[in-house]
Amino acid sequence: MKISIINGSQKPNGSNTSIILSVLNNLLGKDNDIDNYTLGVNQFSEEIYNKIVLSDVIVFAFPLYTDSIPSNMLKMLIELEGFFGREKAKETVVYAIINNGFYEGKQTHIAFEIIQNWCERSGVLCGGGIGQGAGEMIGATRETPLNKGPFNNLWRALKLLTEKIETKEPVGVKYLSPYFPRFLWKIMAHNAFWHPLAYKNKLTKKDIVNKIEY
């Protein structure tokens, strides 16, 4: 089976999306013909688009940007749609893996609706996927195997997704939050990420809570 996996993160390396995809690639194994593409801030060449549209399965993976799809990913989808217009979609099935910084994976539901609408317009089948919350924790806990830490449910969802990919069956959309108390996640996010980032940019606590006036 020919599978195209597209990493839509704008980070050149070390993204939470790439961590998730490395697990997916391992689960899919070597029995499939897998092409991995990293979009970054650029767009694909015509040659790559022509390869993608010949896939049996396409997996889009990207972080949530303002409750939606990153601009680079959206532009790529628009261009890819045109290539599907030239090449008949031969029962291609599309899955998506979307991670976001909010605790609740449900926050990705609008982005999933966009993917579903794009599938309809492009003439491909939408197989569903995974909406993962607390995405920044994935990078923070990268030393812990996914199946043994707070993202054990993500690992199990990826395992199920792998099974569905190999049979080209729909999996529905699974919205996930980590096995980690929300209040502790909030404390960790403030003290280990947002506050250090603010201090790095020479902002005080007062600056953070002050309202921005336009």
Strand content: 15-25%
Biggest sheet strand order reads 2-1-3-4-5-6
Q: What is the CATH superfamily classification of the largest domain? A: Flavodoxin domain
Structural class: alpha/beta
Characterize the biggest β-sheet.
Answer: 6 strands, parallel
SSE run: EHEHEHEHEHHEHH
| Share of helix, binned | 40-55%
Number of domains: 2
Question: Count of DSSP E strands?
Answer: 6
Total helices: the number is 8
Please name the CATH topology of the largest domain: Rossmann fold
CATH architectural name of the largest domain: 3-Layer(aba) Sandwich
Spans of at least 5 consecutive residues whose pLDDT stays below 50 are: none
The average pLDDT value, as a whole number, equals 85
General form: globular
Structural features, described:
- By secondary structure, the chain is an alpha/beta fold.
- It folds into two domains: 2-180, 3-Layer(aba) Sandwich (Rossmann fold); 181-214, no CATH class.
- 45% of the residues lie in helices and 18% in strands.
- It contains eight helices and six strands.
- It has helices at residues 16-28, 46-52, 71-86, 109-122, 135-140, 152-167, 182-200, 205-209, and strands at residues 2-7, 33-38, 57-63, 93-99, 125-132, 172-176.
- It has a six-stranded parallel sheet, sandwiched between helices.
- Helix 1 links the parallel strand 1 and strand 2 (33-38).
- Helix 1 (16-28) packs across helix 6 (152-167).
- The protein is globular, with a radius of gyration of 18 Å.
- The mean pLDDT is 85.
